[in-house]
């Protein structure tokens, strides 16, 4: 810190700010315009100082349920999606108006898991966000709730924000919530103490985090925030977790909330998405030679090294690669459908190409689409 201010914050030029539903809603659970205006005032002030801001905002469901005549936040997926469809437009309209008063234009960007795991979608998402920032527009991101099915949902915007921070090469991630930092136990209980600095896993070893928040409108509680902080700091991006009412002070670098220091350095972007944002649709069991090839030589996975196929996946889906003992060693995007693979196992690509045609010469998982999991890769970083 210099002069009492956090240099990780004062030196940041591109900042991703995530605000949770609990910080945008009134006591009755609906959206609170006053809280939106207060947040926008702070972000507009930063933007006016030349800082690029990307906002990841929850709140679509909270905005949408009252106009549908519902008294409280719905619990089933279909009604949540209906509420999000109604609420997202209203929410962005409110932001558009509030930022407009400060002379700033905003853009809505809705992301699904596919957008950040499939190569073509991923590049597209990056290009769109980069171009918006070049135009001086402030992107407002949310998950595309209305079309995301249970299996392909992020479900929480904390991890989405960490992955977006990496996607846009942000210098800082700020998570705004209804709690003034990470506590070592339930923040409502006397005796729980705030953890102001987290420099690594050792500072988290005594921390107990709960899944649900006190507001009843947030989704992941502190669990997803700590996970988001791990993803971002492991990829070289420091994180501030603060109460939304302290947003101005947090973004000015004042020592409020919890400061998670960077623990790793930047890694290839898609690898981060693959490791943290995908739910595997199947498992491929490898023989020990293939495990060595994939983990030590960082080679692509070929049919010859696979002994068993499990799951119902299609081309481009994420699958786990497991060793002969069943431990997951890597995750990758598969180039064959589940029903095609069993007939190819144990066979050389040359044989397959001769018998079935050149299309069958392709790798089952290309090394560019593969990330090691649960063990150290060549850079010594953890996936
Ligand atoms: N160890 C902890 N430290 C701080 N907050 C915690 C902890 N464990 C659980 N929580 C709860 O997490 C909540 C924030 O999560 P959530 O309600 O999902 O917020 P948001 O809507 O901002 O995403 C806080 O209100 C707090 O009650
Ligand atoms: N995408 C959902 C919010 C999901 C979410 O992560 O909520 P929160 O825990 O309040 O940040 C919505 O806009 O309602």
UniProtKB/TrEMBL annotation:
UniProt KW keywords: Amino-acid biosynthesis, ATP-binding, Cytoplasm, Kinase, Nucleotide-binding, Proline biosynthesis, Transferase
Read off the Pfam families from this record.
AA_kinase (PF00696), PUA (PF01472)
Q: Which domain of life is it from?
A: Bacteria
- PROSITE patterns the UniProt entry points to: GLUTAMATE_5_KINASE (PS00902), PUA (PS50890)
Where is it located? Cytoplasm
Location (main, coarse): cytoplasm
Q: Which PANTHER family match?
A: GLUTAMATE 5-KINASE, ISOPENTENYL PHOSPHATE KINASE
Q: Which family, according to UniProt?
A: Belongs to the glutamate 5-kinase family.
Q: What is this protein called?
A: Glutamate 5-kinase
Organism of derivation: Actinopolymorpha pittospori
Q: Taxonomically, what lineage is the organism?
A: Bacteria, Bacillati, Actinomycetota, Actinomycetes, Propionibacteriales
Q: What's the name of its gene?
A: proB
């Amino acid at each position: 810190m210099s002069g009492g201010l956090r240099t990780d914050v004062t030196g940041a030029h591109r900042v991703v700010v995530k605000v949770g539903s609990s910080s945008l809603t009134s006591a009755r659970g609906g959206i609170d315009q006053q809280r939106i205006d207060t947040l926008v005032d702070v972000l507009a002030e930063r933007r006016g100082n030349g800082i690029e801001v990307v906002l990841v905002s929850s709140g679509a469901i909270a905005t949408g349920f009252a106009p549908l005549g519902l008294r409280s936040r719905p619990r089933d997926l279909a009604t949540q999606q209906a509420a999000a469809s109604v609420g997202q437009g209203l929410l962005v309209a409110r932001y558009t108006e509030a930022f407009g008063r400060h002379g700033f234009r905003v853009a809505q960007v809705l992301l699904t898991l596919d957008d950040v795991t499939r190569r073509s979608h991923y590049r597209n998402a990056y290009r769109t966000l980069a171009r918006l920032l070049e135009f001086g527009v402030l992107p407002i991101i949310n998950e595309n709730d209305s079309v995301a099915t249970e299996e392909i949902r992020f479900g929480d915007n904390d991890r989405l924000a960490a992955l977006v921070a990496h996607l846009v090469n942000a210098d800082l991630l700020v998570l705004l919530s209804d709690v003034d930092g990470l506590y070592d136990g339930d923040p409502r209980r006397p005796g729980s103490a705030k953890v102001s600095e987290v420099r690594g896993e050792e500072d988290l070893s005594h921390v107990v985090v709960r899944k649900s928040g006190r507001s009843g409108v947030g989704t992941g509680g502190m669990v997803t925030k700590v996970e988001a902080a791990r993803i971002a700091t492991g990829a070289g991006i420091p994180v501030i977790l603060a109460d939304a009412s302290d947003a101005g002070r947090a973004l000015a670098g004042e020592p409020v909330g919890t400061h998670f220091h960077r623990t790793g350095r930047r890694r290839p972007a898609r690898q981060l998405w693959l490791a943290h944002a995908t739910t595997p649709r199947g498992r491929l069991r490898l023989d020990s030679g293939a495990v060595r090839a994939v983990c030590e030589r960082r080679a692509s996975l070929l049919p010859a090294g696979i002994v068993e196929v499990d799951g119902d996946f299609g081309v481009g889906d994420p699958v786990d690669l497991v060793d002969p003992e069943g431990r997951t060693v890597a995750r990758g995007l598969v180039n064959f459908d589940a029903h095609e693979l069993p007939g190819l196992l144990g066979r050389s690509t040359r044989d397959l190409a001769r018998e079935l045609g050149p299309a069958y010469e392709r790798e089952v998982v290309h090394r560019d689409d593969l990330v090691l999991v649960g063990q150290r890769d060549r850079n010594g970083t953890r996936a």
